[in-house]
Amino acid sequence: MPNTAVLQADKDTFVKNVEGNTATQTWYVTVASKTSRGFDALEDLGLPAMNSNHPDDFTIQLKTLTPARTKDSQTLWEVVGNYSSETTDDDSEDPLQDPTDVSWGHSSYGVVADKDQDDASISNTAEDSFDPPLEKEVFRLQVTISKNLASFNAADALAYVGSVNKAQVQIQGLLVAARSARFVEWSATKQWRNGTSFWRQVQRIEMERDQYDFVVLQQGYNEIVDSVKSPIMVGGKVASSPQLLNNNGAALAFGGTPKFGTFRVYEETAWGSLGLNL
């Protein structure tokens, strides 16, 4: 970090009173970018450490540093430090020692219901799908893990968000089968507290009862017979609605058991080293 802080001695204040002296000091800090924020100015190495003594009075300590962008320049910040002898519970609190917060919840969404709880196809007595199709509400368990970190690796977030667990993993005491959990958020916000900059990281994971695979009813307008694809004929005419297919791609015989195809569409990543079971 740079060392650009310049003390503005003419803005210093010092007040003596029976309950304890108070004082302020002001610095001008130059940051590298016009888009920099207040915590960037507070990381300047020229600023004193939190709870350090006032240079002229060792009985009072630096309690707060407050940054404000100056009107004359977008890269120049005015930082005001307040000294006092007051002690608070937060004075020695290190944000990196904060406990990890864990919360549980759920999300819900609607999907087409093409099979029942016994995995039987949902269709009418003529073996046609309902039009419009039936829908059902699906619930997913969610866990949100929030913790403070000294640094944040955006490459990890890029690698994992949107992916599913490649192997069985334990998440906050819950054993989750492979491909049954998915990262839906991996974010972080830079913060500043008690003279320490840190990142507040949030990881949110959703879990399925089954797996994050697409299970689709095998049906269509064409069939494959003797390695040749051709339109399915019904009553001597080309089928006007999707027809059920068997596992070989041919039209399913009337009364046959409907077939479903399973597709893996989400990237699978290894979660074992992520420390999700705190």
What can you tell me about this protein's structure?
The chain has 278 residues and is mainly β. It folds into three domains: 6-84; 101-209, no CATH class; 219-257, no CATH class. 4% of the residues lie in helices and 45% in strands. The protein contains two helices and 22 strands. The strands form eight sheets. Strands 1, 2, 3, 4, 5 and 6 form a six-stranded antiparallel sheet that branches. Strand 12 (181-193) and strand 13 (196-207) form a beta hairpin. It is elongated. The protein starts with 5 loop residues before the first strand and ends in a 9-residue tail after the last strand. The model has no long low-confidence stretch (mean pLDDT 88).
Helix residue percentage: under 10%
- The fraction of residues assigned to DSSP E strands is over 45%
| Mean pLDDT value | 88
Q: Which shape, going by the Cα principal axes?
A: elongated
Oligomeric state of the chains? single chain
Overall number of structural domains: 3
What about the largest sheet?
A: 6 strands, antiparallel
**Total DSSP helices:** 2
Query: Based on helices, strands and strand pairing, what is the structural class?
Result: mainly beta
Counted beta strands? 22
* Rg estimate, integer Å: 31 Å
Contiguous uncertain segments of 5+ residues: none
Termini Cα gap = 33 Å
Query: Which sequence of SSEs, written as H and E, runs from N to C?
Result: EEEHEEEEEHEEEEEEEEEEEEEE
